[in-house]
Specification:
The protein is α/β, with parallel strands linked by helices and 355 residues long. It is built from twelve helices and nine strands. It has a five-stranded parallel beta sheet with strand order 3-4-5-6-9. It has a two-stranded antiparallel sheet with strand order 1-2. A hairpin with a 5-residue loop joins strand 1 and strand 2. Helix 10 runs parallel beside helix 11. The longest helix has 27 residues.
Length: 355
């Protein structure tokens, strides 16, 4: 009887698989990623190395000594005071206390703060309060301290925003009108991102994180790229992290371009190239997890995309790892066995600069 290896599925289910099944999943996943993005597959040595990481009997694994990377975050300190339904622990503490605890007790490489909604649109009307909070916390922190939020162009459409919702227009065949409202919303989003970025830069922001760029499609991605380009002219010394939202840019508009290239359908290596061209300091690739595939399959697929993205650009690539991205199972509190295997694989095989 063939030896079984404890592993998980993409939804977190605990399963046992044979060595042959894991190797087959790794092979199938790298072929799938390579075919979709027209990039090289993992080679035989890399697939063997990935199998060894997946099959390692320890509950948690780690990178080899000397291969440690920096970890950036998108509001991890919120986990202390947010509710359990959002992956938090619900401790009664302030935002400042959470930031300091995350930095000092958990020895975080970087820390951050953001509005509880974690989108830039609701930050704009309360920017003076956020500037004051950021400045106070920055005087008490030592690690790089970022301000993060999502561009989240969806908030600019009705019923939350002023523009007609393209999701209502597209089913009625109003393609031209849907594109026009996306362009208008993207321009407004761009202006808001610049406004907030300039205000934070004025009080010494150590880094701005545009998290989950492109969540509303290619026009959303365009707005983030344009905002970064504009901010680099007025705030050249403020680092800007741009994080993606999916392994390819959704073509909700379909014709939006940046630097003469259409954004719709871009895979991680192409997204990273656009981020670098815009002036981003770091790009965070996001590869979705398939819940009905094994963790081995998901990690192999993510590593294939990441390896090409790292090769394509000169800026650091930090992989989004957690809760349904980067090979990690889709669950609020992913298991440490899956998270550490994904992290080790993306660093040692994908050559990620950070997580």
């Amino acid at each position: 009887m063939q030896k079984k290896i404890f592993s998980r599925m993409g939804d977190g289910e605990r399963v046992t698989l044979s060595a042959g099944e894991i190797k087959e999943d790794i092979q199938a996943a790298t072929v799938d990623a390579a075919r979709r993005a027209e990039i090289p597959e993992l080679n035989a040595e890399e697939m063997d190395q990935l199998f060894e990481i997946i099959a390692e009997p320890a509950r948690a694994v780690s990178v080899n000594s000397g291969q440690e990377v920096i970890v950036t975050d998108d509001g991890c300190s919120m986990s202390f005071y947010s509710g359990q339904d959002g992956g938090g622990v619900g401790v009664s503490m302030s935002r400042l206390q959470a930031i300091l605890t995350y930095e000092r007790a958990l020895a975080a490489d970087t820390t951050s703060m953001g509005h509880s909604d974690y989108s830039f649109k609701p930050v704009k009307p309360i920017i003076n309060f956020e500037m004051n909070e950021y400045y106070t916390a920055s005087m008490m922190t030592t690690a790089p301290f970022l301000y993060g939020a999502q561009p989240n162009m969806g908030l600019y459409f009705q019923p939350d925003g002023p523009h007609e919702n393209p999701a209502d227009l597209l089913p009625r065949g109003k393609i031209k009108e849907a594109r026009e409202v996306q362009e208008a919303a993207a321009q407004q989003l761009r202006e808001d991102l610049i406004f907030v970025g300039k205000k934070l830069n004025s009080i010494g922001c150590e880094g701005l994180n545009l998290d989950t760029s492109g969540s509303a499609g290619d026009a959303d991605f365009w707005a983030a790229l344009m905002a970064i380009s504009d901010l680099k002219e007025t705030a050249p010394n403020m680092p800007v992290i741009m994080g993606g939202s999916s392994e390819f840019v959704l073509g909700m508009h379909g014709e939006v371009e940046f630097n003469g290239r259409r954004l719709a359908g871009m895979y991680p290596h192409e997204q990273a190239e656009m981020a670098e061209a815009a002036g981003a300091s770091i790009y965070g690739v996001a590869i979705g997890t398939s819940t009905n595939q094994s963790v081995a399959w998901n990690i192999a697929r993510a590593a294939t995309f990441v390896k090409e993205a790292v090769t394509a650009v000169n800026i650091p690539v930090h992989v989004n790892v957690g809760m349904g991205v980067g090979g990690v199972p889709m669950m609020e509190a992913p298991s440490i066995d899956s998270v550490t295997r994904a992290s080790k694989s993306l660093v040692q095989i994908g050559k990620a600069d950070g997580l």
